[in-house]
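Task: fold both queries, return tokens.
Query 1:
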Amino acid sequence: MKALVTGATGFLGNHLCRELREIGYAVHISNTQTASLSDIKNLDVYKDIDFDIIFHLAAVTKAGDWCVHNPGTQWIENQIINTNILKFWKECQPSARMVCIGTSCSYDPTLPLEEGYYERGTPDLDLYYYAQTKRMLLTGLRALQKQHGLEWLYVIPSTLYGPGFKDDDNHFIFDLVRKISDGKYKDSPVTLWGTGEQKRELINVNDFVNILLDLTDRKNEVINIGRGKEYSIKEYARKICELVGFDFYDIKYDTTKFSGVQSKCLNIEKLKGIFPKLKFTPLEEGLKEIIDWNNNGKKIFTNTV
């Protein structure tokens, strides 16, 4: 079995490539150094390989308020990489199953976060342009299915967490771990963005990868992958403080900073209908793992790409 993974050296890409190799796939990669999607000609190195599956993870985005200040960059660069991988798929790999990663940002926060509403309404305005490129990616999959009979799967994850995150990855949970750990071990002040009342859902990256690989026989579907349960930023911070040994009441909150939507929890009824006995890594266990990764020299995970 042969797989092409775009965005292969990102957080999710590292974990996915590792698991694919462990189950026997020959893994080929695309990133900014190898077969970059910025120019479709870079994919020529793979045009004579018959892939069984293509995982399209690559996206130009960052956590925090980066989206707010870079809407044009996100729109142009994501449209380019999405169009190039879809064109490569259609012209060179029509027998491969295309698996694409969407974003919960594409949901209108005033509507149910379930698959039938993914393209309805208006995404949060701070994330609007990135969200629309992900909606356009789904539109592209459907267009190529309709005209050429190509098969695809489009999955929408909640926020992923686990070991192996990079120093510049400031997704909220990694940012919390870094700030609270620095408060404990470096006596640094701990200030979080927003009121701390905004709620977020997490799924352990290994849980996500396992579910994703179990779904690859599904075709032409949109599926949410999450835990279906969310906690406030304050609740996550309290759990991390308990594990690190930092006084939760020493945390301060800066309400002038970007804090995003107030709630973001995926409806996973469709996923539970496919897998009635879903099991997830306990939150405390997952948090301890990323705290250990952050504080113990980052020796428990090595890049396998």
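Query 1 returned. Query 2:
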Amino acid sequence: MLKRQLTAYLLTFFVGFAAVSTAFHLAYTYLRSPSMTHETLFLKQRFYRQHAADYDLVFVGDSRTYCGFHPESLDGRLGRKSINLATFAMWFPTQLPFVQSLVHAIPPGTPVVWAVGHANFFPVVRESVSDRYPIGWRNAAWYLRLGFSPWNVGRNFFGYLPITSLLREPKNILGVIQAQSAAPLYARALPARGSGAGASEAVRRAELLEFYSKQPGVGRVIPVTSGDQLTSVILYRTGGGYLRVEFEPEFFRKKQRELLERAGGPLSDAEAEAFDTGAPDPRLLAIFDAILGEFEAARLPLVVVEMEEAPFLYRHERVREKWRAFMDRVAKPRAEARGFAYVRPDFESLPSEDYFDYNHLNSIGVEKFSEILAPLLAAKLPPIERRTQPVAVQLP
């Protein structure tokens, strides 16, 4: 009798959990409004699918695309209307299924810009199949054959099943609650107003963040603090990009120096000359080729933009030269063999101070990069008739 009751209780629990998880999955995936100011690619992709005819240029890639390619900074220079469909931790294994689902929504002839760097060809973490986008069963089976671990593949595959999605990312519940709240996020993150210096600082912060929230092309403003220090703000822009504005530059330069120290500091000339990039991970190289194949099969014009890390991370200029040679051997010929354009921006003019960490551009770096990138893209993109006006964001 006890065994039968226990079985009934367990069955009831699992059925109830499956029902709640499935309901949450459907609500989280399909009931929320499409948005370009959210990091969730489902919402960005749904927005694009509804408005694809309004855009004549699409940016895809990982966090370097997300942080560095801003329609608000590029459209006026290019005379186009573009959209950024990227987010953080979108490594090759999740970029492939995203591209597979996206290419069918892109109007014929619409050019795509894909940002790729040498780091993409090596596991960023031990395995690199992140949970940012569902890989699907076909890719899951292929990734297992390529040699990705069953745990790494299964974590993504089973995490996106309706009956288990509640276990994948519990913080999504908080995200749903925040998205439905009418109060701006920056207001909820500020301390209550009282009296004295603390109150004055709170008022200053509120005024500063409200200023950014009213700038054209800005959808959400999130403050970033370290203790009581407001170090920066994140601007989620309506074109789909993520812009970090630094208020305390020395805070970020200190973090970069600490990263350099943990890496062992600058290399000597002899150490840099002996540095070997090694061979690309064959699994990631195969996925890179598959992504190129998706664009080729869809007959979409593609421009591959080579990205680099912040200069300090190379530890020696000779090391950076070797990584460029690596991309010349690995990425460039594969893209050009399929008839795609390939460009390498001049990163020499972007010092480490133009990054808020190890490879993500800050607001100053974005403007510099946009000025460098625009003429390279203009020379490779097919002509269009549409002309757009720049959306200027005033930065103090």
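Both queries returned. Flag for query 2: The chain has one domain: 34-127+180-396.
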